[in-house]
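Tokens in:
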């Protein structure tokens, strides 16, 4: 019987993350973590009796598989207990305040718990984790990246209107249409695996941008440094049937349904380790496509 792994869709920053491949540390490795994180990992290792599988990039955990049994049956409480007990491993000073519950989803073999991170009431862009509590009450894994706790001002140096102007200038379309009002977010290159640059306060907004000869107008997300007025990140927010396909681990197209289902509600892919695609589920755990 083929074993299966869970592969998560983070559509908004998948392309950014792919620029820097993750590095899986060998079980005996002590590199990649600062002393506080290493001490917490040693504590977890002692409790488990073995070093858990862990992936580190830019000094933070991207994936950890503690496979830790728990007596706590409430999924949210069980995952929060892990973050509180081993807060130093994730660089968190106050996990209960920093981690906001985003969703709880029954996936058949257990329950997925998703948290999004905030700092002083302001969300951190793309900083989130997904954890699996199995039906056997085992914390199987924690996947995702969190920004280590830090202190930053929440007061912007430029206003929202200046951010809109900067985003339009960077879009290349003078007639780009604002899709929603700008909101303040923290942007961390470390979380996205781009670099070890410091986190900054940014204005986040979306524009409908004319792609010209490249195709139809698409909604694009912009993050503008809230103090310098410079673009720090942009990404397509809208994926239409012309610019995506379903691919296997070798990046070969395995399914090209017409019309194609919306990826906007996609949560996760079940994929065999040999690369054979199995099922895509939507936010309600209903199959979108079988291949």
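Residues out:
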């Amino acid at each position: 019987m083929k074993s299966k792994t869970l592969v998560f869709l983070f559509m908004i920053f998948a392309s950014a993350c792919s620029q820097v491949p993750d590095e899986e540390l060998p079980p005996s490795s002590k590199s990649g973590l600062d002393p506080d994180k290493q001490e917490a990992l040693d504590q977890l290792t002692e409790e488990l009796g073995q070093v858990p599988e862990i992936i580190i990039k830019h000094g933070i955990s991207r994936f950890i598989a503690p496979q830790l049994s728990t007596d706590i049956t409430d999924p949210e409480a069980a995952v929060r207990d892990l973050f509180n007990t081993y807060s130093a491993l994730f660089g968190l000073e106050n996990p209960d305040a920093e981690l906001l519950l985003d969703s709880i989803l029954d996936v058949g073999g257990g329950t997925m718990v998703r948290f999004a991170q905030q700092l002083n009431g302001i969300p951190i862009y793309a900083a989130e984790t997904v954890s699996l509590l199995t039906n056997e009450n085992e914390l199987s894994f924690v996947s995702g990246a969190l920004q280590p706790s830090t202190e930053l001002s929440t007061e912007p140096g430029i206003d929202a209107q200046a951010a809109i102007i900067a985003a339009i200038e960077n879009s290349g379309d003078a007639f780009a249409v604002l899709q929603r009002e700008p909101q303040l977010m923290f942007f961390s290159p470390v979380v996205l695996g781009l670099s070890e640059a410091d986190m900054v306060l940014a204005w986040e907004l979306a524009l409908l941008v004319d792609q010209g000869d490249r195709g139809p107008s698409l909604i694009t997300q912009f993050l503008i440094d809230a103090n310098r007025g410079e673009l720090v990140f942009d990404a397509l927010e809208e994926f239409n049937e012309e610019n995506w396909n379903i691919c296997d681990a070798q990046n070969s197209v395995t399914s090209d349904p017409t019309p194609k289902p919306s990826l906007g509600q996609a949560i996760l892919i079940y994929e065999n380790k040999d690369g054979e695609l199995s099922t895509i589920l939507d936010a309600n755990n209903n199959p979108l496509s079988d291949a």
